[in-house]
């Protein structure tokens, strides 16, 4: 057996090998290496921009099952959102929601507020400084109700399309920017897939924003995954769901409140609509009562003549 080397000899040999073969590594600090790599890292961080948008989705208490299913459908469509417990819809809900958004490290909030078990309001806010928008949600159809044939992967990034009406007036431009920031999935998000296979469509009709979700279906030829140029023209859109319509009520300068930037002059509250319907039904009953009184007055003013043969058969 050979003799073992002493520790000093082995250290000298190893130091000699390091000097001949490899160069010394630069010293590392908390801010980076000392050979000037920190400046390069700073420059790269300034040039590149990473979207860290996160959306908090929550609802109020006593929400109906249809509206809760609509909220869950939106949660499944937005991989960059965070769902939270129900919040009591009181006057001080703005401060509570802003605190929740800060605790969840989010930058936006979608709050579904249900009133009287019938009316659904959607708050869309950029926290903590605003702006925020309050919508009345109409024509709600969830994925479970529609049972459409469209289907796309969960977590894939959507293509956002807007109608030309969004560029005509300033309040529509503001809503378009908010839709882009909230519904657009950030690139390289850890829960998202790096491709597009569905489309979010926002269109304006009768001063309402209509939302649709379509799958991009394209025919594949053969076993290859690549698509021919001729097949690109054959792409079709298959609706997936859900469907809903947003009626803007007010746009506020702050988060869940603040100065009013825009107010919809054509908005009619659902309570007023129901009261008008009740008045119309009450009007029908009032007409019947008036007709009965007119008939009685006519009978009193025009009495019938006495019939001579009325009591003939009674004897």
UniProtKB/TrEMBL annotation:
Residues 53-257 form the Brix domain. GO terms for biological process: ribosomal large subunit assembly; rRNA processing. Its main location: nucleus. One of its GO terms (cellular component) is nucleolus. InterPro entries: Brix, BRX1. GO terms for molecular function: rRNA binding. Signal peptide: none annotated. Keywords: Nucleus, Ribosome biogenesis. Belongs to the BRX1 family. This is Brix domain-containing protein. It comes from Anisodus tanguticus.
């Amino acid at each position: 057996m050979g003799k073992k080397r002493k520790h000093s000899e082995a250290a000298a040999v190893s130091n000699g090998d390091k000097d001949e073969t490899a160069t010394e590594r630069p010293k590392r600090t908390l801010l980076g290496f000392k050979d000037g790599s920190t400046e390069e890292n700073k420059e790269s961080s300034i040039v590149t921009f990473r979207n860290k948008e996160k959306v908090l989705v929550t609802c109020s208490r006593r929400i109906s099952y249809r509206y809760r299913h609509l909220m869950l459908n939106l949660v499944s469509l937005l991989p960059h959102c965070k769902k939270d417990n129900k919040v009591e819809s009181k006057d001080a809900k703005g401060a509570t929601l802003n605190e929740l958004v800060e605790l969840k490290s989010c930058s936006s909030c979608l709050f579904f507020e249900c009133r009287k078990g019938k009316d659904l309001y959607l708050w869309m806010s950029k926290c903590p400084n605003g702006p925020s928008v309050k919508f009345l949600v109409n024509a709600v159809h969830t994925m479970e109700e529609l049972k459409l044939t469209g289907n796309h992967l969960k977590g894939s990034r959507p293509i956002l399309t807007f109608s030309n009406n969004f560029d005509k007036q300033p309040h529509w431009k503001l809503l378009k920017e908010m839709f882009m920031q909230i519904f657009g999935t950030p690139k390289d998000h850890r829960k998202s897939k790096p491709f597009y296979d569905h489309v979010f469509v926002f269109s304006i009709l009768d001063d309402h924003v209509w939302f649709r979700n379509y799958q991009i279906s394209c025919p594949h030829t053969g076993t290859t995954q690549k698509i021919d140029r001729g097949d690109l023209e054959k792409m079709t859109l298959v609706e997936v769901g859900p469907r809903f319509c947003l009626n803007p009520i007010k746009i506020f300068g702050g988060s869940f409140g603040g100065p009013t930037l825009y107010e919809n002059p054509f908005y009619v509250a659902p309570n007023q609509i129901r009261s008008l319907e009740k008045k119309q039904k009450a009007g029908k009953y009032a007409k019947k009562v008036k007709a009965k009184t007119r008939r009685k007055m006519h009978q009193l003013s025009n009495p019938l003549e006495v019939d001579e043969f009325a009591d003939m058969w009674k004897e």
